[in-house]
Every structure is written in structure tokens, then in C-alpha cells.
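Changelog note: in this version the structure field was regenerated for every chain. One regenerated record is shown below for reference.
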Amino acid sequence: MLAAAPPTVEVRALLPEDWSAVADIYWDGMRNGLATFETELPSWEAWDAAHLPGHRLVAELYDEVVGWAALSPASKRRCYFGVVENTVYVARHVQGRGVGGQLLRALIDGARAAGIWMIQTSIFPENHTSLALHERCGFRVVGVRERIAKRDGIWRDTIFLEKRL
């Protein structure tokens, strides 16, 4: 007897009605302290204003949003219009199943098609999973930004990575 194929994850555009599921995944990432300096969920309006239209994705498994990814401008300066920062979050119960890779590769493909020339990201050194994901997708470590900001009153370092398209 053949084993059943693993379920397929569908990557599609993030819609406003996905916000509740996206916010739950984002909140879980905030709480673990490995994913972001943020400690409070933004409103949909604030999140929407900060991320580039056309570069917001969700991953669905069995009609459940299990991950999301988005691009935001790295700077408001016109000369940097082709430089963006990426964000990828995956629900805890599906981590390790390739969802993050599918999301990040789709973001990269969309960015390349839009004429974006560089994607950058900052990752806490302790977030080994995210570092490995980005390196598998062709990001290179540019350097360590020591004591770049505080989270919960503690200075934190980040590893700065980039992918040139």
C-alpha cells in the first residue's frame, strides 16, 4: 500500500479577511521573543499601511491560514525604492514542513517580477530556523548589528541578511 502524499500548501495573496488568522500567527511569533522587536499587535489599518500591496501572501493548508509573508519598504527615500524588507511567519503547529520556504520563495519571485533589486531582513541570532530558511533561499549574512534595539528592556543583536535580485 502506498503512503498518502503530504497535503499541499497553497500560497495565495493575503486578503483583508485573512487578518484575524495572520494576527494570531503574528502574535504567537511576538510572544516567543525570537521573531520581532514588536510586542503589540498593530491594527489591520496600521499593518496594511506598512506593507507593500501586491507583496503580501498567506499559506493555506486545509483552508486554514498557516503562515504569512510580506514585503515592506526599507526606506522612504526614492533612491531605495527597489530595496525591501521581508517578513515571514509560520504557525507553530506546521513549522518544519516547508511552509516558510514556499512563502519566502514566492515573495522573492514576486519581488523579482516587480523590479525590486534587493530584499533584506534582520533576524535575532537565536532564531536558527529563520536564519537557515533565509540562507537556503539565497540570502547572505552582511553582518551583525550589535545592541541595535531593546526588547523588553534588554539590548538585542540582529543578524542582517540580504538577497540581491
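Spot check on this record: The mean pLDDT is 94. Strands lie at 10-13, 56-61, 64-73, 83-90, 118-123, 140-151, 154-164.
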